[in-house]
């Protein structure tokens, strides 16, 4: 088996390109497992600032299977996202072997996030594995990979300050908004969406003293979310949302519903690309009504809108509405705080150590047979030496008309077994190291063969690069 990951994030792409690439990402895992025989498992991570696909590939040593899987995924992503195959293939950073674990563990620990150390990504990594289980696309190796990633994230959070309270996109957005808003205890908030970021938004608002929180979702899940988070639900129709915006100070939009609109009954792809959850006309109506109600003031207080969705819940033209400040992911990325280099280095060391241990566990399976053979050989040696030592003792006691007692024989067996197993330890370490080196060399041959084939294919067929 070879681990293969194809990743695209805010570090490699601008957010517009990333949005186009990931717009159809939800189905890629199922499709690649169902249509590409060498792929034994797939897990997809698709968040507000990354699209990553992790594959477990049953690859022969010539590397053709890895090359085929890479091209096949690019074709599927292109077909589902509306971009060309060239764009999809060119947008991915391809990692294989040990690089896969190193990257995923860093992602889960928040080291690759816009706000370094943010904790929401750890939950998203967990949910990606759960989704793969639901879709029946995971594998034993991917289970081990993602569960280890979650443990590594916890370890980084425990042993560094990067996991401190408040390091998140939501917190960064609210910090920026707070410069314009009234004091948070008197702030009225509307959250659009019911997912992980919505829950994090409720927690972040309450931590700042804001308790007047309403939630809107056109999916119909607002009532359940409101009940579980002790907030107020807004009806699903757009007019109810406009009414909620009339007296709101801050809106946190994180539904990602625009990216999923193509899945809704009766909504085709062209409509989905235009279906903003919050459009400029709705915001303008809300501001007009707010102005009409603000009789004593020349104008109502500013409305701050945080759009945390990769697929832009909020129409960018909302920024042109009078009295509205719109902060999107690009704004947050530009304002992300600097990170303490010593803490970041410590976190990277923890990630690197976890990746090494994971690789030893994964590739160590190749050493199991050799180690078992050593133990079998050791047992045969113990049996032989015990027989020799017992015979010698029988011979020594015979002239005195005595024979070894059961305790004598058990003592011989314990002594021989202890000595043989002590000597065996060094041999096991050496054999295991050799087996690991052989496994790494075999995997490196797969990777090198795949990369060589990929380069040759790109040179011969530039349209498939």
UniProtKB/TrEMBL annotation:
Highest taxon of the lineage: Bacteria
Domain Quinate/shikimate 5-dehydrogenase/glutamyl-tRNA reductase: 176-258
Reactions catalysed: (S)-4-amino-5-oxopentanoate + tRNA(Glu) + NADP(+) = L-glutamyl-tRNA(Glu) + NADPH + H(+)
Pathway(s) per entry: Porphyrin-containing compound metabolism; protoporphyrin-IX biosynthesis; 5-aminolevulinate from L-glutamyl-tRNA(Glu): step 1/2
A Pfam family that the UniProt record links to this protein: GlutR_N
NCBIfam families: PRK00045.3-4
Domain notes: Possesses an unusual extended V-shaped dimeric structure with each monomer consisting of three distinct domains arranged along a curved 'spinal' alpha-helix. The N-terminal catalytic domain specifically recognizes the glutamate moiety of the substrate. The second domain is the NADPH-binding domain, and the third C-terminal domain is responsible for dimerization.
The protein's name in its UniProt record: Glutamyl-tRNA reductase
Organism: Isoptericola sediminis
């Amino acid at each position: 088996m070879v681990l293969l990951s194809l990743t695209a994030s805010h570090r490699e792409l601008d957010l517009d390109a990333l949005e186009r690439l990931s717009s159809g990402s939800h189905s890629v895992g199922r499709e690649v497992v169902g249509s590409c025989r060498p792929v034994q498992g797939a897990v997809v991570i698709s968040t507000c600032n990354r699209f990553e696909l992790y594959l477990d590939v049953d690859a022969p040593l010539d590397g053709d299977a890895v090359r085929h899987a890479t091209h096949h995924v690019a074709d599927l992503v292109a077909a589902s996202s509306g971009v060309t195959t060239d764009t999809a293939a060119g947008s991915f950073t391809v990692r294989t072997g040990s690089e896969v674990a190193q990257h995923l563990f860093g992602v889960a620990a928040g080291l690759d996030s816009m706000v370094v150390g943010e904790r929401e990504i750890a939950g998203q990594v967990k949910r990606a594995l759960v989704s793969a289980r639901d879709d029946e696309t995971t594998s034993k190796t991917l289970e081990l990979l993602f569960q280890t990633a979650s443990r590594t994230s916890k370890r980084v959070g425990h042993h560094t300050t990067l996991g401190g309270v408040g390091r998140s996109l939501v917190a960064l957005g609210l910090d920026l908004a707070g410069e314009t808003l009234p004091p948070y205890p008197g702030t009225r908030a509307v959250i659009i969406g019911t997912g992980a970021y919505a829950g994090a938004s409720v927690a972040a608002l309450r931590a700042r003293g804001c308790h007047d929180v309403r939630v809107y979702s056109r999916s119909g899940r607002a009532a359940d979310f409101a009940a579980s988070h002790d907030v107020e639900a807004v009806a699903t129709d757009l007019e109810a949302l406009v009414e909620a915006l009339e007296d709101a100070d801050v809106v946190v939009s994180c539904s990602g519903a625009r990216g999923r609109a193509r899945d809704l009954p009766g909504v085709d792809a062209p409509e989905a690309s235009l279906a903003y959850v919050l459009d400029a006309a709705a915001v303008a109506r809300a501001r007009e009504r707010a102005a009409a109600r603000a009789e004593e003031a020349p104008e109502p207080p500013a409305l701050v809108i945080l759009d945390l969705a990769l697929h832009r819940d909020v129409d960018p033209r909302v920024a042109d509405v009078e009295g509205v400040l719109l902060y999107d992911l690009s704004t947050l990325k530009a304002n992300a705080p600097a990170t303490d280099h010593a803490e970041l280095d410590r976190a990277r060391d923890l990630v690197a150590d976890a990746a090494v241990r994971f690789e030893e566990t994964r590739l160590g399976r190749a050493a199991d047979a050799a180690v078992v053979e050593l133990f079998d050989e050791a047992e045969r040696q113990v049996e032989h030496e015990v027989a020799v030592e017992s015979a010698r003792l029988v011979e020594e006691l015979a002239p005195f008309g005595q024979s070894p007692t059961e305790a004598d024989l058990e003592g011989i067996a314990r002594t021989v077994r202890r000595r043989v197993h002590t000597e065996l330890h060094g041999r096991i370490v050496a054999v295991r190291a050799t087996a690991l080196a052989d496994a790494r060399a075999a995997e490196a041959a797969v990777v090198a063969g795949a990369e060589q084939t990929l380069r040759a294919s790109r040179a011969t067929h530039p349209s498939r690069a």
